[in-house]
Amino acid sequence: MAQNQHSIAGLILAGGRGERLGGVIKSELVLGGVRLLERVAEGLGACSPLMVGHGRIDPAALHLLAGMVAVPDLDGDYAGPLAGLAGAIAYLNALATPPELLISVAVDTPFLPADFVARLVEGLGEAPAAVAVYGGQPYPTNAIWRVARFRELPERVRAGTAPRSLKSLSAEAGGVSIEWVEGDAGDPFANINTPEDLANLQRRAATAGAHRA
At which positions is GTP bound (predicted)? Predict the structure, then answer.
């Protein structure tokens, strides 16, 4: 199943405030000389539209690149990635021709594999959703969603009847897992929640840069 047979939107979940990092805006952190927002955008390739879920952060503070679409969380008592996905689905529902697929990714996942989009599309098959897995660890923010199957998510969020997490949402719909083979490069979905995480991934970026030099 070739990637170019599908219309694929992208969603970068960038609403986290990095409380354990001193309240920084995660998308503004720099690894290997590149902002996290830009590193992740590169991993999403030609996904269009490319949305950025900004949560309660002023989108101006994210310094979005040309062509990126700022999408707020859906109003309601939901928060986090689930609210971000619901906001993105609401945006896509309003388009004249919504895309078939939506790929979501956390903004603090700076080492997305080169085959990220292609593997998700291929592994989805006929399933409604698929979640990336590495070393037995699922990463529900890094996933693919069949837009038509989740068209009612915004209404369910407003009504309070939707699951409270992306993991639960995928499981409820009968989603599948897509396992990445473990390799020397390390976890391609490693994210940044603490100063130690940041330091570790900064070292990893420096090492990767040295290998390319």
Answer: 13-15, 26, 54, 73, 108
CATH of the domain at 55: 3.90.550.10
Known binding residue 197? Answer is no
pLDDT in tens, 133-190: 999 999 999 999 999 999 999 999 999 999 999 999 999 999 999 999 987 778 999 9
Coil vs helix vs strand at 164: coil
Q: What are the distances in angstroms from CA 126 to CA 118, 122, 146, 177?
A: 15, 10, 9, 13
Question: Binding residue per annotation — 13?
Answer: yes
Distance CA 190, CA 186 (A): 8
What amino acid occupies position 182? E
Task: Please check if 54 is assigned to a binding site.
Answer: yes
Residue 39 structural domain:
3-212
- CA gap 142, 138 in Å, rounded: 9
Domain count of the fold of the chain: 1
Write the CA distances from 182 to 133, 135, 198, integer angstroms.
10, 6, 21
Distance CA 36, CA 42 (A): 10
Encode pLDDT of 193-213 as tens digits: 888 999 999 998 888 754 333
Query: Is the pTM value of this prediction over 0.70?
Result: yes
* Distance from C-alpha of 208 to C-alpha of 211, rounded to nearest angstrom: 5
